[in-house]
Structures are given as structure tokens and as C-alpha cells.
Amino acid sequence: MKFAVKKVNRNIPNEELLADVKNIASTYGLTTMSQDIYVQYGKFHPTTLIRRFGSWFKVLELCDLKPSRSRINIPNEELFANIEHIWLTLGRQPKYSDIQKPLSLFSVGTYEQRFGSWYNALDAFVIYMSEEESVIKPNVRINKDGIKHTTKREPSARLKVQVLMRDGNRCRLCGVECNDGLHNIHFDHIIPWSKGGETTLENLQVLCSDCNLAKGNCK
Ligand SMILES: [Zn+2]
Q: Is the overall model pTM greater than 0.85, yes or no?
């Protein structure tokens, strides 16, 4: 029996995602593109591109397209992707005062209008982040030592934010608070990657750079 294999979005190179948008724009002579148009003509789902690039606005920018006219109906996914981006940039939960340009694409007022308050927006974000990503068949990779992995070594942005949401920006070994954005935060594999540990929420922890270095030396 032959199965039609749907492309695994995770592995599609950035260039290929953007090329699809550009291709539609040039085919139809568009100077901008709404997500609705992309849903009709695109090979991928807009959410895939938004997750990868941070926002639909950013996708258009990277494709040399103008922002779509109406910014009133910004989809929740785009508002959440923006929070994810800020969380990852700061290495901690964004505060009310962080939600401004240039760090944030949207004003805090946009979140207040949509969710009632900034705290409600954060609550909605937490629920959004805890939803499972669309099921992707594990892709077994075998390294040179014959160790099998079903995940990639480098955690995705989404997974990093999930680890930060659980651990905060505090080292799980020494408890120091990492206040220097992501510079001092390391996403450590509890069971080392080299010993078959996977890149999953359960097997990742926040470490400060000192503890990460010390752990590395002990292996
Ligand atoms: Zn530490």
C-alpha cells in the first residue's frame, strides 16, 4: 500500500516557505497578500510561516510585499507569535511595559482590546502554548554512534518558550536568575543528547552559563 506523505512543515527551509509566497504574488501580480489569499493559493498553512518568522507582517516584509491593508483583524495566532518572540528575546515573561515598539509589533492596547486585559492575554497565550502542535510523525535519525533520535538537537522557539514558562529564567541547578536576556540562558538536555536524550520539554532545563559549562566538563 502506498501512502501519500504530507510534507513535514518543521523541515521546510525558510527560503522555500518564502518562495511560495513570492511565487503567488508574482503569478497574480500582488503587492500585498492577506492570510486568506494565502490559505487559498499557498502550499503551506499561514500558521507555519507565522511560527517560523514571528508574524504575517514579517513574512510580507521578507517577501518585499506591503503590509495588508487592514490590521484590525489580526489573528490571535499572530498576537501570540509576537508574545512568543518577545518572551524569547527577553528570556522571561514579558511585562506590560515591554509591549511596545520596536520589541513588540503590536501595542499593549491591541491585546487589551482583544482579551480584555494584558493578563488575560497572557492567560490565553499560556493555553495556546500548551496545545499540542499538529502531529508530526517522528523522524528517526541515527547518529554516528548508533544512537537514535526522534527530535532535532536544537529546540524550536516554541519549545524554548515552553521551557522558560516552566522554569522561569532561573538556573535549575544553582537558582541564579539570568537577567541578561538569552545570553546567559542555556537550554540543557537533562539526559545528554549524546546519550540519546531527546529535545523535549521533559528533557530540557534552564541552566546558567556557569552551570552549563561545569556540566559539560563533567560528561
Ligand atoms: Zn547555575
A: no
